[in-house]
């Protein structure tokens, strides 16, 4: 890949975000360390993640970027033998506090996974699942939520006539937008995306990227991606992870046009990774 | 002198014996496989022929409509199958009421909550439990469960439907638990993660995601358990008594189809008598029931399959 082409892309695609002032932090990570057994996977992470921004996390495989994302909603704790130290403040409260229920956190922080993982239910039931488990039973309200969420994920027109069909009967790209709609249905504050387009074709990828741009108006989005052009196209800020450390974290245009660290430059210019 | 490998291969290919073996093997395997198929066909044919003989002596209408089973009466013996069917249904009904909630709860615990270590210990134990000889369960029903029940409900007789029903239920729990656990464990982890990431509790994931996704396997396990309960012989022969009854009483002696066959086979009737032929008719009825269950299991598992 060529750094120069990326630069021009950023300048045309992201003209406004450059001038934007510092926004309030949604997440502040301080001195976060994480171990899988004896494997020290995250080392002294310090990151501030801004409101209504798209934050991209890039880095080679095994650098800890997915681990960090899963730590933000504590999904990482599903792996046995995980240990953490340090703290992550979400809206001013440490998510590792013993009184902080994971269900409460995950109701505020939605997640979209690498491979589309709709529930083996109808499209309607997929979207209504979240509201239902959180106690919304009124059919009229559920209908409204389902339509609004599907519209929000830009898939309403494609599935409105087949809401009662199994969600596995549609294409992978549509399934992934169903998963995004499912997340939107409980109106979270933050959406975490773990390489949401890596299993999709280019057209579906483009649709999801456009969607991320729209969702940014209302949600704070943190996206892990392998694809550096994608990070350059859609994010406001970019964090570069390497071997469990944050090497560089800055505005996306700064990272791609003028990386401060040699390793960042090597990575984004395709010299390794 | 050294010949090339290709030449050696060509030489060995020419050997006659190798060719003959290649041709013989499938024939041999086919014959061996045929033995089991032919045996099954033979059994079904015997069953049908003897059943037809039975119906030359007793009208079919009496058999399928009659509600009195009195084969040993000196004069006016009656062969209405319903008392035996009712006996079988009583045992099966109690067994299912016992086994389904316990078996499925155990499966949910094992697949959703238990740590790998617990699962590694508990699953083999369940499978051992499935291998306990049924005669042991029969004794357990007669000498332990019945007295315990009697100490709470003095009305219960020594031979009754409740105690063997419960024990047949206990017998099929491991089967339902183990097969349901297999079905639930094969639901992809990614789907569970999706539900957890929306703020679901573990129980919500188990009950609203995993169980519905595994429903076809769970139903199949229940129907298989059902067909084992219907065919169960030893426990009911020992603990349920031998009184064919067409009523709703569970506390006294009853008789199931299987127990009747045992009773007659033990030597209460001579070869060639109507009673002798009646066991084939009852056996054939039993065969129809279990076959219906297996077809039902196949249908249910298709009907409730959630694609993933």
Automatic annotation (TrEMBL), chain A:
Keywords: ATP-binding, Cell membrane, Membrane, Nucleotide-binding, Phosphate transport, Translocase, Transport
Residue ranges constituting the ABC transporter domain according to the UniProt record: 21-268
Membrane topology: Peripheral membrane protein
Localisation: Cell inner membrane
InterPro entries named in the record: AAA+_ATPase, ABC_transporter-like_ATP-bd, ABC_transporter-like_CS, P-loop_NTPase, PstB-like
Gene Ontology molecular function terms on file: ATP binding; ATP hydrolysis activity; phosphate transmembrane transporter activity
Major localization listed first in the record, in broad terms: membrane
GO process annotations (BP): phosphate ion transmembrane transport
Highest taxon of source: Bacteria
GO cellular component terms given for this protein: plasma membrane
Function: Part of the ABC transporter complex PstSACB involved in phosphate import. Responsible for energy coupling to the transport system.
Protein name, as recorded: Phosphate ABC transporter ATP-binding protein (PhoT family)
Organism of derivation: Planococcus citreus
Lineage of source species: Bacteria, Bacillati, Bacillota, Bacilli, Bacillales
UniProtKB/TrEMBL annotation, chain B:
Membrane topology: Multi-pass membrane protein
InterPro entries the record matches: MetI-like (IPR000515), MetI-like_sf (IPR035906), Phosphate_PstC (IPR011864)
GO MF assignments: phosphate transmembrane transporter activity
Gene source species: Planococcus citreus
All copies of domain ABC transmembrane type-1, residue ranges: 85-297
Superkingdom of the organism of origin: Bacteria
Localization in the cell: Cell membrane; Membrane
Family (UniProt): Belongs to the binding-protein-dependent transport system permease family. CysTW subfamily.
Transmembrane segments: 24-49, 79-104, 125-146, 158-179, 205-226, 275-299
Keywords associated with the record: Cell membrane, Membrane, Phosphate transport, Transmembrane, Transmembrane helix, Transport
Repeat found in the keyword field: no
Single biological process term from Gene Ontology: phosphate ion transport
GO CC, one annotated term: plasma membrane
PROSITE patterns for this protein: ABC_TM1 (PS50928)
Name of the protein this chain belongs to: Phosphate transport system permease protein
UniProt xrefs under Pfam families: BPD_transp_1
Main location: membrane
Function: Part of the binding-protein-dependent transport system for phosphate; probably responsible for the translocation of the substrate across the membrane.
